[in-house]
Amino acid sequence: MKRIGVLTSGGDAPGMNAAIRAVVRKALYEDMEVYGVNYGFAGLVAGDIRKLTRRDVGDMIQRGGTFLYSARYPQFATEEGQLKGIEQLKRFGIEGLVVIGGDGSYRGAYALTKHGFPCVGVPGTIDNDIAGTDYTIGFDTTINTVLEALDRIRDTATSHIRTFVIEVMGRDAGDIALWAGVASGAEQIIIPEKDFDITEVAENIRRGREKGKKHSIIVLAEGVMDGQEFAEKLDSIDNFHVRVTVLGHVQRGGSPTARDRVLASQFGAKAVEVLKDGRGGVCIGLDNEKFVEREIIDTLDNLEHKPNLDLYKLNEEISN
Q: Which positions are annotated as binding substrate (predicted)?
């Protein structure tokens, strides 16, 4: 394989640029050409493709977001859209494709592979919700961004007798809330993977006040419900002086951490090695600090992402 492509798809994540850089630099090292696809699968179908050089990825490792841009393109779920994409890849002489993104991106990569065009998936999402890998690109940066916000909120919380509900991203996964909640010393963490009783949450706040606590911080994963709804449920039980903060898209931005930069670089280089061997339909992952390759279809249909619930239990034991 002498000419490969790379695209980013779905939500942006800090470290995507580092992964693109690694794909380009590793490919050039292996005497391969690299073409970048702008705007994900939408750009692929439109033929928005350009050759990437070493200079194009210079000074990119520290930048958040993705310089190849991203876009939602549900039409790529159809065979018609997939075949149009393959037409463009053939027009540019591209023989394999690195797809950086989440499960929707993986489905696009798997569809292309089924049509005979080899693709390799690289996990890039702040939600850390991809099965088959312990960590995804962007997750570490995001939990540090959330942690900084939580530390600032705790500063003001100590000045008021209030309950603060902090809504964080994560889609249907609770990893961001879980890790940032433990790291910040949050009194309670509410995630989709664990059932909760709002009366029990209220009782925990009361017990904390009886112990002399003047405030309470609750980290809420968006996959459970939105922060305002949660606050209204609490207020229906008692007046806890609830304040809601929705961190929103600030969690996606910013310069990636060292861990995300290194992880993205390793993932990107590994993806090139797989394509160089002429293989496709696989995705790169990290399992107990070891890099692994898995069939994309296993990741999508046979494996299940599970957060580290030992952290949830730990927080219950040490938060109050």
A: 125-127, 162, 169-171, 222, 243, 249-252
